[in-house]
Amino acid sequence: MPISNSAGSSATSLSSVPSDNPFRNINFRWLFGGAAISMFGDQFTLIALPWLVLQLTDDPFALASTVAAIMIPRAMLILFGGALVDRHSPKLMLLLAKIVSALTLTLLSLLEIRGVVDMRCIYTLSILLGMVSALGMPASAALLPRIIEEQRLAGANRLLMGLNQAAALIGPMAAGFLIARYDHRANGELHPLGLGIALLIDGVSFFISAWTLSKITISNNTVATGLVVKPLRLLHEVQVAFVYLWADSRLRACCLYWIAIAFCIGGPMQVALPILANTRLNADAAALGILVASHSAGSLIGMLFANIGFKWRKINLGAKILLIDALIGALLVPVGFLSVVWLAAIFLFLIGACGGYIQIGIYTWVQRKIAPELLGRAMSLFMFLIMVFTPISVVLTGCLLRVFAVSYVFLAIGFLLICIALAAHMLTDIAKINDMEPS
């Protein structure tokens, strides 16, 4: 976190900060600092893990099954993770998840540096990462509203999401060039020094982030009070959240819609994109890093435009969601036919810009819409329903890529996304969702 050069300038700076600035909250400063380090480290694994699988197997289905090995246990356990977050402390649950992730990634990196990693090892550690993320994801979503005042929540979301996109802009390129620089083959065998270093960076970032998280204190005056979660069985606590979501027509419609969107996007972005970089673009890990970074750069620009309104204020949040998702589908159609890295990067930039523009509004709307005492379980239920179908998309994409060229997979996914957005407009009232809709 930046530090002013003098006490006088610091005091002047703080006195001029608006009252709704999240950085006036010391807990948010600790959270932001740890998130900056952890988010940057995550980008190294995002590039290193799929690239390692492709170098070991050159098989799209092996890549898909590795991604599924993370997603399936995450989907199976995230409901219980959300209930544990509501029953105990989101800070404690997130701290536990970070420490286990740090140890897991450090072990995987050391095995790679020694050159003894194989697919069985990758599957095992991927499953472990999926299990701990089932605890960390709902804990992270539920922690922010508990450490920061309500009037600062939207600003905090903007800062954290912008930070994530900034890390995703720098991290993938750094990881890609690191891997390309230090990995090499000798006598037909891969020597993954760069891959090992990349994963080690992520492991260390989790340790540092865990330390900053330990500095956060949760104050009762930042937590909205209401119904108290009784010490019931976990399944019953999850059932309470499900009934709550299903009873609200717009939450129910959004949940079903986002499941369909996740099904369309999950496979191409996590399986088809690395295959595109490795085959049609005929490039190295640096090319994959450029594509991912371009998508993140677009997301960051989209968020900046969202912050200034950009002539959309008279259009409901729901209408923006449907229109932008249809536009993303149209942009995905030609991606698989591109054979030049810089041109593919432009399309990924535009796709990222569309998603980034609407992301903050969606996340803040959900946090405002759901009762605070159910937020952990409700967020984990949202994630669960999406994650159940995303591994299916990933595995299906891997199977399709064994039969069809990557260009036709992107073509089909793009048209499907357009159809889903049109169907949601005609069959649901998502388009009527307002940005400031009360709970």
Describe what you observe in this structure.
The protein is mostly helical. The chain has one domain (24-217, 230-432): Growth Hormone, Chain: A. Helices cover 77% and strands 1% of the residues. It has 14 helices and 2 strands. The protein has helices at 7-15, 26-57, 60-87, 90-114, 119-147, 153-182, 193-214, 234-247, 249-278, 285-307, 317-332, 341-369, 375-403, 406-427; strands spanning 184-186, 189-191. Strands 1-2 form a two-stranded antiparallel sheet. Strand 1 and strand 2 form a beta hairpin. Helix 6 packs antiparallel against helix 10 (285-307). The radius of gyration is 21 Å and the shape is globular. It starts with 6 loop residues before the first helix and ends in a 12-residue tail after the last helix.
